[in-house]
Amino acid sequence: MYAKSMTIHYDPSALQYVGASSLLNDFVVVGSAQAPGTIRLLEASTGTVSPVTGTLDLLVLTFQALDQTATTHVHVSDIWLSDQYGNEREVSSGSGHTMNIVASTETVNKFELSARIGEADSALKGAKVLDPAAPRFGYYPQSAIDALNAALAIANTVYGQIDATQSQVDQASSALTQALAAFNAAANQSAVIDDLVMLSENYHATSSAAQWQSIRLYDFNHDGMLDIMDLASLARRILN
Which of 58, 68, 71, 145 has the CA that lies 20 to 30 A from 236? Predict the structure, then answer.
């Protein structure tokens, strides 16, 4: 194909035509004529060999919405193609395209929700299930783990929603914050000699250690290292 002519139809009460731009360097828009609701475009090859063969995307049409909410239709008619010898033929125009216009006037900030999701995910990765017959410090009842998992799933759903409002995001963040607080409060606070053994075996371990997720519960002062301060804190818990 070396040249093309077509007419684009749209609803001028819903859309305002802005322009058309070619997607191929050597097949460009060389002319246009506008009337309310219609645009006629002429495209042509600017090289010695046409770049248009087979099925290709040729144009980007840009419109500006005139209403914040509307459903409108754009279609094409009178599509004529020409080869290098001037032979013309008309091709099918298809059924067009229906667009739902929904204006977004609110910029939604999901930063806090993202941070809470990260905290919950990290907490669950390091959580161990409490065995009532042999309780260990920092272990959690299965019910507490299940509750936080459920709250995290809801928060992730809201975070992934493109049309979520700021109110919905804030509510999800608040709910997950409360779920995290309840989860942390559910951790077993009594310690035994086995806990002291575990801390001793990992003495001087830091947050970069491969096993940190499973031993960070002994980092009582939250400095990213298991040291003498943590040993003393654990000893006080064992001695009650």
Answer: 145
Q: Is there a single domain that holds both residue 98 and residue 115?
A: no
**φ, ψ at 129 (rounded to 5°):** -80, 130
The length of the chain in residues reads 240
Boundary of a domain, candidates 81, 102, 123? 102
Write the single-letter amino acid at 27: F
**According to the 3-state scheme, what is the secondary structure of 12-60?**
CCCEEEEEEEECECCEEEEEEEEECCEEEEEEEECCCCCCCCCCCCCEE
What is the distance between the alpha carbons of residues 231 and 219, in angstroms, rounded to a whole number?
A: 9
This prediction has a pTM of 0.50
Residue 218: give its domain's CATH number: 1.20.1270.90
Domain count of the chain? 2
Domain with 77, as residue range(s), is: 3-102
Tens of pLDDT, residues 150-174:
999 999 999 988 888 899 999 999 9
User: What whole-number distance in Å separates Cα of residue 49 and Cα of residue 214?
Assistant: 66
